[in-house]
TrEMBL record:
Pfam families: AsnC_trans_reg, HTH_24. Keywords: DNA-binding, Transcription, Transcription regulation. This is Lrp/AsnC family transcriptional regulator. Residues 1-62 form the HTH asnC-type domain.
Length: 152
């Protein structure tokens, strides 16, 4: 991936609905080479898709929660069981494997505190093998972007 490919990606992260002509103008290419580069980025998997950035509150899920989980055991079976279950739980938007005291961090969206309690009791606890759950509720967002920083 070269600097021009990164320019294309950054432009599309800012506005995924721009036309190829607008994209080509933004990155100083003619439309045909721009489209060819875009298709190559898609085919290589560097661009995995396009989606709408939706306001979770407007959708009806105003509560964002970061949930950190530590497993009781770190054997292959328990780790795979946990990760397999996480894949099926729709309230979990992201799951990251961590270093340090906790094993995973989840980004979860729910409609209210009661829904969060139900989520923990009916979706997380039944997984089993969990040593601890640490919860932080988001009460404000200072910065949120999907645009990668420019590389030198």
């Amino acid at each position: 991936m070269d600097a021009k490919d990164r320019q294309i990606i950054r432009a599309l992260q800012g506005d995924g609905r721009m036309t190829n002509q607008d994209l080509a103008d933004t990155v100083n290419l003619s439309p045909s080479p721009c489209l060819r580069r875009l298709r190559n980025l898609e085919n290589s998997g560097a661009i995995r898709g396009f989606m709408a950035d939706v306001d979770a509150s407007a959708y009806g899920l105003p509560i964002t929660v970061f949930v950190r989980i530590r497993l009781e055991r770190h054997n292959e079976e328990d780790v795979q069981r946990f990760e397999r279950h996480v894949q099926t739980i729709h309230e979990i938007l992201e799951c990251h494997v961590l270093t340090g005291a906790m094993d995973y961090q989840l980004r979860v969206v729910v409609s209210d505190l009661e829904a969060y309690e139900t989520f923990i009791r009916t979706r997380i606890h039944p997984i089993g093998g969990i040593a601890s759950i640490d919860t932080s509720f988001v009460y404000g967002t200072v910065k949120k972007t999907a645009v990668f920083p420019q590389l030198d």
